[in-house]
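Sanity check

After download, print the first record. It should look like this:
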Amino acid sequence: MTVPDLRPPANNEGEPFFPYVANRESGFAPGLQTLLDGIKSRMGFVANSIAWYLHRPEIAEAVLRFNTAVMNDPSSTLDRLLKRKLALVCSAINGCVY
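Expected structure tokens:
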């Protein structure tokens, strides 16, 4: 499966306005790779919202750990499907087409 080029439009200098990570599959720090593998196994892909942080491994790791903690919280009374539905509604309300 090929991934379409979803880079943002270039600015006047011809560069994307935020860092773009073409490789979303491998080659990251071991801890980050493990978290990415977990997300990829759940979602089937690495989302742009996550890939955007990969240029800053320390931020990516915090975001991925937060996401994993929220989605896998054993004390939560909400199941994962409802959490995903809530994320979808929040995205739609905020005009995100994701």
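If your output differs, re-run the checksum step. Summary of this record's structure: Helices lie at 30-43, 48-51, 57-71, 80-93.
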